[in-house]
Design brief:
- The protein folds into two domains: 3-163, Enolase-like, domain 1, CATH 3.30.390; 172-469, Enolase-like C-terminal domain (TIM Barrel).
- Helix content is 38%, strand content 18%.
- The chain has 19 helices and 16 strands.
- It has helices spanning 19-22, 27-31, 37-40, 69-72, 82-97, 105-120, 127-148, 153-158, 178-181, 221-228, 241-257, 276-288, 314-322, 340-346, 360-377, 395-406, 415-418, 427-436, 461-464, and strands at 3-16, 41-53, 56-65, 101-102, 189-196, 232-236, 264-268, 299-303, 329-331, 351-354, 382-385, 410-413, 441-443, 449-451, 457-459, 480-481.
- The strands form three sheets. Strands 5, 6, 7, 8, 9, 10, 11, 12 and 15 form a nine-stranded mixed β-sheet that branches.
- Helix 5 packs across helix 7 (127-148) and helix 6 packs antiparallel against helix 7.
């Protein structure tokens, strides 16, 4: 009895990208009616791993992005090598997984993580990236286990069917259990926290006729608020004080003009500030700006203001621990190791983010630690739900299964506006997804499956009731093998 890998297959999933919104066009692209597939398609890697789960062969799926920019920023990996290194990390994790046998999915993950860490620390590949390879195998293992035993992810966690040892991450939790520290039941719906990038259009005035998309989906922030009821935002900061004040004030105007007066937002600083001292100086100027007097009280938290290499410095700890009236600040890119959250809390941060690309088991343990600290210290610690442009038909569902179990009521969603639904995915897959998850997806008038966002929320009841989010069999025959993958 236990878990072991029998075989690994990898497939390429190409989804139509809303390229104007996400990346912009060059003059050459404007003239190219056919377009370049590398520009017009968003590539995803789909892993189909066959496991022996307690004596029966079961296939588990996982799906993730192949763009490495977020993972390698500030590392020794040259940007032009990032995507190649990402695939290298996934391939090594898959190869190593074939050499691991364990009693439980968590013990399997732990053995695989140790092997990957030993390999990764001997390369220039940063921990976030080599850890991503482990997380994709981890998700496939959880998927296979839940399917083999007909378990939802929430039940598997609360009943500790997966064998999770919280003390492997946090010794403070030796006498605690996930069942006691997590919410009593998974959420059945979550708010979409809509990303507003630094160049994303806010109103029609921000678009030229050539930039206007004709795909039946909202494009400007005002349209998202009006048509989908969006009332949670994730706004990118630039650390250019004048620009940020003006843009935040404009966003508030757009919300009010669209009839949205009850809203909340987070600020993603994307490592833009050089030091904690500089961040504090600019923040206090933002707080004093009369243009933002009615806007900033709606802030939930600020995400990752400092470069990942500087986030836990002595200066950072001194500034954050002594700063009276500081906004809640959480880490994201700095969360690259099992003990990252503890280090962050010691430095005065208020919490961390969860993304499945950083690990489902780690996310559960971190959520438990934050609940434990909130109880023991009688103050609020935060976990956010973030998104690396996660999309269906697999990745989004597994992501939401974890988010719902963690009880994260609002989750950043990028894929719903950076991609044209699931256009590009085989129609048979889209139909299966719509049949099984008609609360989460709808058939868009353009013919493709698209997230069904109503009053700013998405329904995930069918997701949390399914084995690790997906309640249909995915036919991988509709996808091409991933080119050159050696897993």
């Amino acid at each position: 009895m236990g878990i072991a890998v029998e075989s690994v297959d990898a497939y390429q999933v190409l989804i139509d990208r809303r390229m104007v919104l996400s990346f912009g066009k060059t003059d050459d692209e404007e003239e190219d009616e056919d377009g370049d597939e590398a520009v017009n398609k968003g590539e995803r890697l789909l892993l189909a791993i066959e496991f022996d789960i307690d004596g029966a062969s079961t296939v588990g799926l996982s799906m993730g992005a192949t763009g490495a920019t977020w993972f390698v920023k500030g590392s020794e990996v040259p940007p032009e090598e990032g995507d190649e290194r990402l695939i290298e990390a996934v391939e090594y994790a898959c190869q190593s997984a074939g050499e691991v046998e364990a009693d439980t999915p968590f013990a399997f993950w732990q053995a695989l993580y140790d092997r990957q860490r030993e390999w990764g620390e001997g390369t220039i590949i940063p921990p976030l990236l080599w850890g991503y390879g482990v997380s994709l195998v981890e998700q496939a293992a959880i998927d296979a286990y839940c399917r083999r035993h007909d378990l939802t992810f929430a039940d598997a966690v609360r009943e500790n069917q997966l064998g999770l040892d919280l003390t492997a991450f946090h010794e403070e939790l030796a006498d605690e259990s996930a069942d006691e520290l997590l919410p009593p039941a998974p959420l059945s719906s979550v708010s979409v926290r809509h990303t507003v990038g630094q160049t994303d259009p806010l109103t029609d005035d921000d678009l030229t006729p050539a930039e206007r998309l004709d795909d039946g989906l909202p494009q400007t922030l005002g349209e998202y608020v009006t048509e989908q009821g969006i009332d949670h935002l994730k706004i990118k900061l630039t650390a250019d004080l004048d620009f940020d004040i003006d843009r935040l004030a404009t966003i508030e105007d757009v919300l009010h003009q669209a009839g949205c007066s009850d809203y909340a937002f987070t600020l993603d600083a994307n490592e833009a500030y050089g030091t904690a001292t500089e961040f504090r100086r600019q923040w206090e100027q933002l707080r004093e700006a009369p243009e933002l007097e009615t806007f900033l009280p709606n802030l939930l938290y600020v995400e990752q203001p400092l470069a990942r290499r500087d986030a836990f410095s002595e200066e950072t700890a001194a500034v954050f621990n002594e700063w009276e009236g500081a906004p809640p600040v959480i880490i994201d890119e700095s969360d690259d190791a099992p003990d990252s959250l503890r280090r962050a809390l010691e430095c005065g941060y208020a919490g961390t983010s969860h993304k499945n690309c950083k690990g489902a088991f780690k996310g559960i343990a971190n959520r438990c630690l934050l609940a434990y600290y909130s109880r023991e210290k009688d103050q609020e610690y935060l976990m956010s739900g973030e998104d690396l442009t996660t999309v269906g038909p697999v990745g989004l569902l597994e992501d939401l299964a974890v988010m719902g179990t963690l009880g994260l009521d609002h989750v950043e969603r990028n894929g719903h506006h950076y991609f044209r639904g699931l256009s590009g995915v085989p129609e048979s897959v889209q139909s299966s997804l719509l049949d099984a998850h008609g609360d989460l997806y709808t058939r868009h008038e353009g013919g493709f499956a698209s997230l069904d966002i109503q009053d700013g929320r998405i329904e995930i009841g069918s997701v949390v009731r399914a084995p690790f989010g997906r309640d249909f069999d995915l036919e991988t025959a509709g996808f091409d093998p991933y080119p050159g993958f050696d897993g």
